[in-house]
TrEMBL record:
Subunit structure, as described in the record: The glycine cleavage system is composed of four proteins: P, T, L and H.
Keyword Cell division among record annotations: no
Family in the record: Belongs to the GcvH family.
Organism phylogeny: Bacteria, Pseudomonadati, Pseudomonadota, Betaproteobacteria, Burkholderiales
Name used for this protein in its record: Glycine cleavage system H protein
UniProt cofactor(s): (R)-lipoate
Gene3D superfamilies: 2.40.50.100
GO cellular component, one term: glycine cleavage complex
Positions of modified residues (N6-lipoyllysine): K63
Length: 126
């Protein structure tokens, strides 16, 4: 698995990348591979304040649905509206396609997330 080192990861298979004063969040290539062809990405509500680990949205494929979780405490500030009509963009380029952006209560929380090696170890163990 080739993991970009310019971001952090969660054990629930989200990637998290600093984008100015917010964090862009998507799902890993490993996650989209396991889900298969995505048919829906949504239920993300900008303006909602979430605690780390709370459900921020959902991705659905032809074979499964999976929640997407907030990687840090903060406020959802954007949803990638392009995914409403083209959820398969994630299948095509998971690491280039963010799902939502969150403004963290404390940017230091980002530092506590997994690096590429840490996520690799979790992904390798199922």
């Amino acid at each position: 698995m080739n993991l970009p080192s310019d971001r952090k990861y969660t054990s629930s298979h989200e990637w998290v990348k600093v984008d100015g004063d917010v964090l862009a969040v998507g799902i890993t290539d490993n996650a989209q591979e396991q889900l298969g062809d995505l048919v829906f990405v949504g239920d993300v509500n900008p303006g909602t304040t979430l605690a780390q680990g709370e459900t921020a949205g959902v991705v659905e494929s032809v074979k499964a649905a999976s929640d997407i979780y907030a990687p840090v405490n903060g406020e959802i500030v954007a949803f990638n509206e392009a995914l409403a009509d083209a959820p398969d963009r994630i299948n095509e380029a998971a690491f280039d396609t963010w799902i939502f952006k969150i403004r963290p209560n404390d940017m230091a929380d980002f530092d506590g997330l997994l690096d590429a090696d840490g996520y690799q170890a979790i992904a390798d163990n199922g």
